[in-house]
Amino acid sequence: MILCPNCQHHEITGALYCSACGGQLIHIADDSTRTAQYKKEVIPTPTQDNLWPIEHPSSPSDNHKGLSLLLIGNEQLIPLAGKSEFTIGRATQDQEVVPDIDLSTHGGYDYGVSRLHASISIGEQITITDLNSINGTYVNGRKILPNYKHSLIHGDILALGTLKMRVLISN
Amino acid sequence: MDKDKNFYTILGVPHNATQKEIRRAYHAAARRFHPDVNKDPNAGTVFLKIQEAYETLANPDERIKYNKSHSIEDDIPPITLNIIYSRSSIVHLEEPQLIYTLIEMKPSQIYEEKKLAPLNVCLVLDRSTSMQGARLEVVKETAIELVQQLNPNDSLAIVSFSDHAEVLIPSGLQIDKTTVVNRIRQLHASGGTEIFRGLEAGYKEIRRNLRPSNVNHLILITDGRTYGDEQDCIDLATRSATIGIGLSGLGIGSQWNDVFMDTLTNRSGGNCTYISSTEDIAEFFKKEVRSISQVFAEGVTLDVDTGPDVEIRYAFRLEPEIAGLEPKLPIPLGNIQMDIALKVILEMLVPAISGESSQVSLAEGSLRLNIPSREVPLYNMPIFLERPVTEAPNPQPPPAEILLATEKITLYRMQENARQEFSTGDIHSATRHLENLASRLTSLGKHQLAQTVLIEAENLKRQNRYSEEGDKKIKYGTRALLLPDITDGNIL
């Protein structure tokens, strides 16, 4: 038997969600039992021209979707263009790998953004992957599973920790 | 030509080559050895050999026969199975545990270019008084559109019913389209709803053209409740499913009996759709006809024996159409489409593991299929569901696909539980479940559906009853959460 941490309902071992409250029962976010699965070699090395902000819009031959993030609160627009994979986080001085999109100037630290918080990939679908961030990544108020791709659609509200932004996708 | 050269080596393709690879290899070889190009005196013979090899391998049935007679591998199965589990092992425990199994079935690559089978379809249309006006008019217009789209090999029959049934268009007859259209136009609404009359006449029409090489399917469209003949309908649907006739249903508005329709369509693994507004009728038709015309295998049935004391507690189809399935073996699963795999998730209860067993057999048996385009349509595909036993649970989280699906299915089951509790008079639990469901939906961003659920919870508290419209909206709304990319408000 397992006990739902949310509503104390009993469930059979192996159940994934609580039948009474719908809450998730498996402890995916439990750091004590999980090793960091983030591999350094998959981090794209930032080069000079893909450091945010990137001004050049995608060329017309590029059939990838256009993606921007609109920070809620100060209404700043962050365009993501020029490549298909972006890491988001907060750059600090002695950090080896700097995220492609640095939110440190947007209060990233206070809002609980991790140094390498998430990655966004742009292809036929646009997906976000939480990179085991401390405070989690939320899509429309829902925490997403770390290390799994989660697809984003136009209008989604994305939150890294408590830093909220709207996903804007244009074709 | 060497004796030991088989058709595969002649074309230079592997035994598991796809149709595309075979065709490409053939074109390349034919170009090289065509007698007009190649002046080698043997080129003509080689060219003929290439021709012969291609003709056999390009035809899936011939290819299987050839493989058998030349003992090239075993029979290539017509479908590919992909099975994933929520956990990599069963844990050595002295108490029961659950494991989720996701089974994906799709056509094998050798069939990727196989032609589609002709349709043998019957529309059974409710023309009771309540259908009067926009509902019937839209149904009529959509049926006419459907008639226009048919291929010459397809057969479409149309039966209308109220408290009796009449055959508008008999099955298999080549009536000219103008006559058909006129007959549909003349349809008018009057009378009660006796579904059995309609079904009986509809199945009779389909049976005229019943062949395993056709896709045999009945589509029932109703907006009302049938009284007293429910069991007859279910028996008829069960019998018809065993002879290979699929059934899907469309319920319009809030008055029809969704529990009955679900049971009815479940017998053949068909699906039941709810629409609240008449505008969606055309879309349902389009989707339904498209999915029937893409059928690769129909009447797919999971016919297995579960391991000792293992129980299938819940079965749910994720694709091509979402549906709760009755977990009673054998389980009709539905159709495998050419372009969309059939995906089913099973929740299995495994008993306490005693002694030293190192392996647990969850289920063993076969998938029964009818593949209309095959020379021998009936096919049994063996299936084994088993897991090793380990002392400690694997720390790996379950596969994302299972996690995502079970999350939404949990919500669907919460509304099922609430309905169940309501029917046994446990209003308190029913209300609590609905409130929990609403808060889950809110956290998923489904505000409109959450609102509908909250209103029903209020209804239950104050008036001790469900509204007929609300409970359908909740049921089909939570079910639709499993659809990809649905944004809030799209479905209701």
Structure description:
The complex is a heterodimer of chains A (171) and B (492). Chain A is an all-beta fold. Chain A has one helix at 108-111; strands spanning 2-3, 10-11, 66-71, 77-80, 85-89, 101-102, 116-122, 126-130, 137-139, 142-143, 149-152, 157-160, 163-170. In chain A, strand 1 and strand 2 form a beta hairpin. Chain A is globular. Chain A starts with a strand and ends with a strand. Chain B is α/β, with parallel strands linked by helices and 492 residues long. Chain B is built from 14 helices and 16 strands. Chain B has a 6-stranded mixed beta sheet with strand order 6-5-4-7-8-9, sandwiched between helices. A 5-stranded antiparallel beta sheet of chain B has the order 1-3-14-11-12, covered by helices on one side. In chain B, helix 7 (195-208) packs parallel to helix 8 and helix 13 (447-463) runs antiparallel to helix 14 (468-480). Mean pLDDT of chain B is 87; it is low at 485-492. Chains A and B meet through loops of A and strand 3, helix 11 and helix 12 of B.
Can I get a quick summary?
The complex is a heterodimer of chains A (171) and B (492). Chain A has one helix and 13 strands, in the order E-E-E-E-E-E-H-E-E-E-E-E-E-E.
Question: What features would you highlight for this structure?
Answer:
heterodimer; A: 171 residues; mainly beta; six-stranded antiparallel beta sheet; 13 strands; globular; B: 492 residues; alpha/beta; five-stranded antiparallel beta sheet; disordered C terminus
